[in-house]
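Curious: why this fold?
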Amino acid sequence: MTQRLTDRELIHQKLKEYFGFSSFKGNQEAVILNLLAGRDTFVLMPTGGGKSLCYQLPALVMDGVAIIISPLIALMKNQVDAMRTFSDNPGIAHFLNSSLNKNAVQQVRDDVLAGKTKLLYFAPESLTKEDNISFLRKIKISFYAIDEAHCISEWGHDFRPEYRRIRPIINDIGTAPLITLTATATPKVQLDIQKNLGMNNATVFKSSFNRPNLYYELRPKNDADREIIKFIKQNPNKSGIIYCLSRKKVEELAELLVANGIKALPYHAGMDAQKRAENQDAFLMEGTDVIVATIAFGMGIDKPDVRFVIHYDIPKSLEGYYQETGRAGRDGGEGFCLTFYNYKDIQKLEKFMQGKPIAEQEIGKLLLLETQSYAETSMCRRRSLLHYFGEEYKQDNCGACDNCCNPRPQVEASQDLVLALKALESIGDKFKIDHLITMLLGKTTANIKSYSHHKNQYFGRGAEKPQAFWSAVIRQGLILGYIDKNIENYGLISITESGKEFIEHPKSVRVAQDHDYDAEEREQNNIPSGGGAADEELFAMLKDLRKKVAKKHNLPPFVIFQDPSLEDMSIQYPTTLEEMQNISGVGVGKAQKFGQEFIDLIKVYVEEKEIIRPQDMVVKAVANKSGNKIFIIQSIDRRMDFEDIARAKNLTFDELLSEIESIVNAGTRLNIQYYLDDYMDEDKIEDIYLYFKEDAESDSLDEAIAELGSEYTEEEIRLVRIKFLCEVGN
């Protein structure tokens, strides 16, 4: 007992001496005492909870050298530099990795053998080298620490195969107590880590995953570039990270932000290492406000005052999302987490999985399904996120997410949940959520037939309600504990004892109607896109005017101005032709041809309502993008083949068509007839043209494909739509 008190006194003394704190946070003290007692320790602690201290402090007080296994060179350097600021001894912490030359490696080894070093950082790849293993056998190791331990699990968001070789290497070097730390581990990932490292008897310290200072919001991905610029300009001089999935998008977006007066730098693995380090340092030292990055950025970066994290693309997993959003507000201050979502991004991520081993594809698809459910849910985001990590959040309204602050209408769903639970009980525990929903909807798929579930008494009993509704009901059942997810066979669901009790004695269960993130459908239902910042009264008046103008010109309304353009008018209030040209989707041609009547209406509205217009915010195009547009216009004028134009600008054919559509939507008239004559049959051109002229209610591509049938390709429809818009609209 006395020894334990001595340990406690010692660590409090060292906490003050080295780190300047007078008390520990959360589980830190218990974790450190457990490690000092020589026991294996498993630490689940959210970003900002102080994980690093859990191995840094015991390393300073224990006899020997602590071996810290960490995934990123940048992370190691960051932590070694930090440790050296706490001590007069520059050799107190070192790293051994591929970035060091022979002399530097020798210096590290000399310091370790001289007893100067207390923490030695390794990447898992360096740890496997025979000369490093031989060296480590010569020294006394106080303990091993595995940081970012979720990298061990295939179910984690950043799986690294070399992490799974750590246990055999430790056995080879010599055993010592083991501490593993992660900010993101679902129950499944935790089990996987413990199994792989032989830590089934480890003491587990699990802190709450709740970050009450973070605000979570998802918006439909409509003109995300413009939304991001607006958001940053409304939050001047605040530090933020924007995550994109592709390196190309990182470069483009960083360039666009700079063009619009925002201090931003890119960061991705394809950049030169020195440039990457410079950009990271600029962000840490406040030389830049915003870093636009792939997921390579941020792991272990200790910047407490990041005020916003924006996801331009939806992440591949909720672990990734949680860790990346967790980099906001680490000091307990404001942290705004904004994500842009479009279902097409999910489909894109699914395509990336093609060609990977089947087992990896299965895992990836299930993780994506969780992300999609989170993105599309109308439930409290905090509750949904914490449930994913095995934690119960009991409050009905967190007051800090879009779904709680702007709740959707709710419907009573207790009888629907009873039906879903009965159907689940009838098929047993060998099926996933999508199988149960397919059966309730009455869809006779090959899988349903192979289990004879088309003969099940509950088959088709939920057909009158959409798939999204049943997803919401089942998610609610999971969160209320009536449905359980199998940890070993991830994704398989079963009814719990509480679920069986609920069937007998149902209670009120309300389900929010889920968000509609389908942009095409939003247009069909006349719902303005872009986060609800528009003046709804003006928007409705502009739509009425558009109808009148369309009737006068005998054109479909979408040819005059599309909904996003009207919505932008109802945000920006343009009252001159010059201002009208800066509206999204309106160029010089359209402004001059149709703009005046809209300007007149807006002028009167602004005067009558005494509206103080917001400061004009024009999103400037990046030079090379406008260069692309000029090149395309000139090339079409010269009747150049589209494939040659695409090749010259390193674009895919799909990207070229998107560029041409954007040029045409802004009001420029192009004559592409020469290309159509070579590319398409005359009858096909006429059929598609007549569809847009006489039958189409909107310019929706999906509607056109559905109406025209499979004999017309998407490319053909897009090309004729371009011709139609040029001839009748511009």
In short: Residues 518-532 have pLDDT under 50 and may be disordered.
